[in-house]
Structures are given as C-alpha cells and as structure tokens.
Amino acid sequence: MRIDVHAHVIVPEVLRDAAPDEWWRPSVRWEHGVQVVELGGREIRSAVRDFVDIDAILSAQDEAGIDHVVLCPWVNLLGYGAEPAEGLERCRVQNEGLSALRAAHPERVSVLGTVPLQDPETAAGELEALMDSGFAGVEIAASVNGVPLGDERFEPFWAAAEATGALVFIHPTTRCSWGGAFEDLYLWNLVGNPMETTVAAAHLVLAGVLERHPRLQVVLAHGGGALPALRGRIRHGWANLPVARARLREDPEASLRRLHYDTVVFDPDVLRELVAFAGADHVLLGSDHPFDMADARPAETVAAAGLRPDEEAAVLGGNAARLLGLEVPR
User: Fold this and answer.
1) Stretch (H or E) spanning 29
2) Could you name the CATH architecture of 3-9+53-324?
3) Is the per-residue pLDDT at 207 higher than 90?
4) Virtual torsion, Cα 183, 184, 186, 191, nearest 10 deg
5) Rounded to whole angstroms, how far apart are CA atoms 137 and 158?
C-alpha cells in the first residue's frame, strides 16, 4: 500500500460561493486551463492540479500509483489571524467538509483537520473532538501569529495531541521568509518554506516539547527542511551554551529522532541520507499535491533512492498505515 501523507484540499464547504459576504473564504476558477485561487484580493496560480474536486484529486493519486491519501487544508486557510471564536467556526466549516470527504471515500481518504491554535485551550478540546470523530489528526502551521510552536502557551495542545495519539503535521506558513533575497527567484518557496519548518522543529526540540511528550506523532513537511543537516550544530550548541540547553535536559538527538519526516525532497540521494538519519520507520511518503512544488510521482523518488526492500515498503506506506491505524493488505 502506498500512502501519500502530504496532500492539500480546499473543501467545497469553505468556498466563497457558500457564503459570498465572508471575505476570508477563497474562490477557485479555471482560466484557459490554469487554476486560479483568489484569496484576500490575491490571485494564486501555483496550485497546478485540481484543488477542490475529490474525483480529480483521486485520479491524480491513481496516476501516481498512490492507494490512499491523507488530505489536509491549505495552510492559508488555517485562520490563526481571526479572533478565537471566529477561528473556531472557520475550523469547523473545513472540518465538516473534510469529514464528508472521508465518509464518501473511506478506503481511499484519511483527513487531518484544523484547530484554532491561537487559543490553545480551545484547540486542545477541538482536537479531542476530532479524534473522537475519526480524524487522523491535524495540520498546524510552523508558527502561530509569529509565536513559535515550542512556546509554553501551546502546552495544552501538545498534551492533547499526545493523549489522543493524533498525527500532527507541521507545514510552513509560506509567509515568514518574504523580504530581501526571498522576493527574488522564487526563493521564498525553494528555500524559505523548508527553512521555516527547520526553525519550527528546532524550537520544538530545544524547548523540550518532544522530551516532555515522547509519544507525540509529529510529521515535518519537506523532509524537515535543513533540520537533519543542522543536527550537529544544534547538538553542539546544546552541549556548550547554557542558553541553548535551558529547557532541554536530554541530548537533542533523542528528540530529533522522535520526529517523522515526509519525502518531499526531490532528490534520491537526499532521501537516502534522510532515511539513514531518521530511520526508515520515521520517513513517510508525501507529494504536496496540488502545487507546482509537488512531487507528482513520489513513489518513483523513493524507488530511485535504492533503499532495502523492507525500508522502501515502510516509507511507501507501512509507516503511515501504522500511524493512521490502517490495515495493510498482504
């Protein structure tokens, strides 16, 4: 079984057509074969495959040889900028749509919901409700209104995530690295997005979140960015600088190895090194559908990495099936 754990969807329930007066909702249209997503007055054309139609999404997964897909919201719709009560309502609109997709395609689709993380207590309660209703977990952004994920205020959320066994998928906000050179040559995406994930994960590690909650199931987008390459630097800082080890007692390597990483790295050599560091049991297949920076055939990237057969099977779907509680046919 091949399971794609990194794919995005805009559920029809959240589109502007459903409530034209609500400015936060996106609209999606096709112009001369190009998909245009309009949000907040901006037109976005980087979603080059279907973002809304579940039949088209599953067809693309079929073409890529994917048996099961984990769908999560577009990160721009997580709604952390709203007041908590409004944020909760926005989350519930999307979660209802995601739940409907799962109910309609239970053999093909799992879903990650969204919670109003700007209010961690409410987010914790909403996560518990989602897990009770069949969600696999949640997608969260790499920071919440500029606050890093290891900040103490998010402790209720992390406690709930550990207690419920939720899969927590961390995705860059796509906004933190804009400015300077990042405005040029598409660097805000090529470099900025994975670096945002790097910072988020390093903060989680050094803030001791994974040490306090060792059963957390956290997946990092884009292969964890530069985190694996920076592990020596992080470890050296923790060992030699009091400020870096103020909140973490164990060697940071232990926390780094608790994290899971997707395969969206576009390079078989990089993927092979990621598996060697994280372990074949902590790397999961991902595509980043429907964007221009997606790996349209991620299973082929895994095959090109030259892993052992048992490692390849784990990365392609065995690990995801374990985390999602799916039965893998023989």
Assistant:
1) strand 27-31
2) Alpha-Beta Barrel (3.20)
3) yes
4) -80
5) 12
